[in-house]
Amino acid sequence: MKTPFRISHKLIWISSISLGILTSIPKIADHHFVLAEGIADFVVTTGFALLIWYYNIYSIPAYTKKTGSKNVISAQLFRGLGVGLLLMFLLSSVQYYILSHINFGPKMLMYEVRGILINLTFYMFIHLLYQTYLNQQVVRELERSMSANLAAQYELLKQQVNPHFLFNSLNTLKYMVESQDGQSTEFIIKLADFYRFTLGSLKLNLLPLKEELEIMESYVYLLKARFEDGLQVSQNIPREIYGTFIPPFTLQLLVENCIKHNIVALDKPLHICIDREGDYLIVKNNIQPRKIPEPSTGLGLENINQRYLHLSEREIQIITDNETFIIKLPIIYEHPNN
Q1: DSSP character at residue 293
Q2: At a CB cut-off of 8 Å and minimum separation 6, what does 330 contact?
Q3: In what order do the strands lie in the sheet with 324-330?
Q4: Domains (ranges, CATH) in the chain?
Q5: CB of 244 within 8 A of CB of 272?
Q6: pLDDT tens per residue across span 46-98
Q7: How far apart are CA 204 and CA 224, in angstroms?
Q8: Residue 329 pairs with which residues in a beta bridge?
Q9: Out of the domains of life, which is the source (predicted)?
Q10: Helix residue ranges, H only, the chain
Q11: Residues 291 and 259 sit within 8 Å (Cβ to Cβ)
């Protein structure tokens, strides 16, 4: 949750009263000290300081919801100086009205100079506090984003070293060996390739799309050894985007998600198509829900979405109707500065 920008009211009042006292000290030390003039000086300075404090605070973007300037010298500064000059003139005029024996001209000039100095000091202090606050918010957002990315990677690790997938693969291999299936050697090679890719890519944030497709090819081969023609996976990715990037194992996780939530059978084959549509990769499958649906936490798609937000500041899109389920993944191009 974003922490709101706040300045303590105690700080505002203590600093304003302290300024009023400090500016009254020369009056008190004067041999011709007049109590009324000292009190008036204190009231004018303290009142001006309080008004300028609150004006500057409530004109910053945290309160006005406007975009703030990162430059110290900005239109906000000059507006504040103008408001300060007007406020000091009004307060000094009230003082002169009450103490009419005071020479208004020199007093006014002294008060205006004092007002400008107070205004600049408060403005600079508030600007420094607000920029520090913004920097802290950026750091917190980065920490939150990194935490979400680490959580997504941890979830990915748990899914990749999935004991159920390994158990099913070994059972399939056992059946192939016992039946003297000629594809058993190829199956072992693909299984080894898949786990070699897994261990080599888990530490990466991004992977070239070409390598991701190779990982998915090994994964689909292992699945088809189990489901045979009950699983139909086709991909029509143009070679021109093979050099773009994708978070590791994204396609494999989406294929796994399709199998988890749909019937995969010879009489009801599951069709999964991977294609390109503009600046998106499309993963589409026909919907044929299981009679007894597997429990789902919804973390799989959310983790993929969090990884895309972290890496490209773009979200995945989910489109579904009664017949098809579509996931649109933003294509991540290589940045010239990265």
Answers
A1: P
A2: 279, 280, 308, 312, 314, 315, 316
A3: 231-235, 270-277, 280-286, 324-330, 317-320
A4: 9-144 (no CATH), 161-330 (3.30.565)
A5: no
A6: 888 888 888 877 776 655 555 445 555 666 666 767 777 777 777 766 666 66
A7: 28
A8: 281
A9: Bacteria
A10: 9-29, 35-57, 61-64, 75-98, 104-160, 163-178, 184-201, 209-227, 250-261, 299-312
A11: no
